[in-house]
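Appendix B, example 12.
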Amino acid sequence: MDLDAQAVGASEKYDKYFHEIGCGYKKLVDYMYIEPAICQPTPAGLSLLVEDFVARTNHDLRAVDQQQDDGPVPTMIDRFKKFGAQAAAIPFDPLRPVGVILTHGQHHACPVLFMRKDQTNYVLIFDSTSGSMKKAYRKVGTFFPDCQVMLNDGTRQSDSQSCITDAYEILTRAFTVDDLIGKVEARVIDERAASSSTAASVRASRFSAPEVDNFRLFRMPEELCFTAQRTAFVTQTSKAEMQMPIRDRDGRLTTLKDMMRLQKTVAIGNQSEKWIGINSYLHDVSVEHRERIKQLVDQRAVDPGPVGDDGSR
């Protein structure tokens, strides 16, 4: 076998676990515009990353892929309706939150965290593109009637490929945030009050989002803004929060403002000629995920693990 054939064989070995996709933005490198690739894990690749994270940390993180066939992709609301029945078996333990990455093949992924505090069960939804869907999302509260359902306000994603990586990064960081529910509760916003000058101006309409008592919106705590690709998503936080000392993913002490400034790349959108800034964090960390997936695949090839009673490994 020649070297080219060996290279193709090595590449095909990993095709099941991730795809390298143009990120949709062009980056200026040595006076030339290039389109960096983002490495998007497949459901199989995401499962490897999740299993590896659980083995290293003992946190309860799960990947739930809802794709069963090649039919039409359901809306996020329909996906949560289906997931609501499946989630009945998820325990609400005040000492052990459960993170779920909800996927549908290579389509939009959504991170969800199940927590309990002061006798209340919480379903925290950290959708990276919730900005345009927050009214429709209210219906999700009806799928979890015994829980307080909370959705982050605003869209932090600019490209079309990073949501799976974002979901993994958000949940693995969320496990480490002290008093996350307290911080989320402190950032609850009143969407209806903010969007109308007086309560009397809000009129009942068959097109309006339904009132759901157990659904609320919140602004993302600063510790979880690190994946945001849109600067506007971060700058909606207060100036004081932007200057608060936080740790980056390597444990170094910094501020949210400096983290965003250092990670932002100059890029141009593929749909227009308008110059924009996009945070490159998810593109960069996706390459690290790719290399880790390769290691895990190679390890399984060497040591596939014990054989179960049914012959599976």
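Confidence is low (pLDDT under 50) at residues 3-8, 193-208, 263-276, 307-313. The two ends are 30 Å apart (CA to CA).
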